[in-house]
Amino acid sequence: VIGPDHPVTAIMGEDIILPCHLSPKMSAENMEVRWFRSEFTSFVHLYQHGQDQYGQQMPEYHGRTELLKAGIVDGNVALGIVNIRLSDEGQYRCFVQDGVFYEEAVLELKVAASGSAPHISVEGHQDGGIRVVCQSARWYPEPEVLWRNLKGQPLSASTKTKSEEERSLFEIRNSIIITENSNKNLSCAIRNTHLNQEKESVTFYISGKLQTELAKFTVIGPRDPVTAVLGQEAVLPCLLSPQMSAANMEVRWFRSEFASFVHLYRGGKDQYDGQMPEYWRRTELLKAGLTDGNVPLRIPNIRLSDEGQYHCFVQEDTFYEETVLELRVAGLGSAPLISVEGHQDGGIRVVCRSAGWYPEPVVLWKDLNGRHLPSLYETTSRVDNNLFETETAIIITEQSNQNLSCCFRNAILNQEKESAVYIAGQLPSKSHVDLTTTRNKTKYRKTRTEMSVVDIS
């Protein structure tokens, strides 16, 4: 039994496959395949007597595991785990038994989480200069913080603090002292060492002489990404602290280029000269709370191109501050369409299709008890509008469960659409079957699913 000789890395909230196979190549269809952590009897997943067993499955893995059976005749017994959690991190054993002979492989799963975009702020005087602080949250494991000048050369930080949030994710706060003699153009980047990836750094400029007084205000945005649904509107929050009126300040929302803005409020009114063409007349600075320092931006009719980072920049006279926030865009596709498309491998091939998803959806076949069923294949493509279209198929035989559902899930929205089908009667032996499902009903979150009934008697 062979597994990978290096750790497998998974991103929190996403899905992962733990590889495992037999050598030499042989069928494992009639063997026992047991995935477990430390206790043999309390398993992560168990395949025995030709089918999955759930009696003693660890509760934290219920409904989250799938033995990928597409390659089981070749000895591939990989395990799929959906919606990865921090508690999933650690060692896994892939145990395979044939008669009285058994073997196992041990592999390690590492979990990583990529946190929020870095937020830079000025927080007062220290040691003859001003203290600039970089903050970010929701990282795992503890990330590296890198200060650099605009040439990419590293700068040394003065202090570093970390704390663990409720879900054991790390929140980082790192500061650097800038003096008259030091480089006043710098950036802060946060890097995940497991993924070898870093969040896009936020560039901070201090022009002229160092300010002789403490910061007048701080600009605050949400730490977590803002999620918007395609075609609907998004409101990007931003406010001043302490509370004060921004009615006579400049409020500038921009992406990567300061001069080419998403929205600009200056001189007590909105300005449109220089606005990015793709946002022309699509933005609104919500002014109801302007006198209290609330400067949120409303964007209607959200598009895929709107996804990414936004800077909320506020200036009064020569003093300015900004925050950076992230907008995620999600598309909820069409209701899954189930159809029967002929004979294959001693059964009938049932196909499920859906389009209009973003990002790529998680697709699952399930029996009516909610247990996952292995698919025959799954293909995903991006169509002209850059949304995802997915097709998946499953083989139903006389021995398999003929009541099943096809579920498409958007991981960002944590919403799903599901259609169910019931195959009534005995499977025919004809070479051609002309069948149509009568109804497909959509399920949102935990709404009851109605079933299509296909009578093939």
TrEMBL record:
Where in the cell does this protein reside? Membrane
Enumerate the InterPro entries for this protein: BTN3A2-like_Ig-C, Ig-like_dom, Ig-like_dom_sf, Ig-like_fold, Ig_sub, Ig_V-set, IgSF_BTN/MOG
Where the record annotates domain Ig-like, the positions are 1-112, 118-203, 215-330
Going by the UniProt record, its keywords in alphabetical order are: Immunoglobulin domain, Membrane, Signal, Transmembrane, Transmembrane helix
> Sorted alphabetically, which SMART domains does this protein's record hold?
IG (SM00409), IGv (SM00406)
Q: Name one Pfam family in it.
A: C2-set_3
Which biological process terms from the Gene Ontology are attached to this UniProt entry? Answer: regulation of cytokine production; T cell receptor signaling pathway
Annotated GO molecular function terms are: signaling receptor binding
Offer a single GO CC term for the protein: external side of plasma membrane
**Does Transmembrane helix count among this protein's keywords?**
yes
Q: Which domain of life is it from?
A: Eukaryota
Q: What protein name does the entry list? A: Ig-like domain-containing protein
The organism that produces this protein has a lineage beginning with: Eukaryota, Metazoa, Chordata, Craniata, Vertebrata
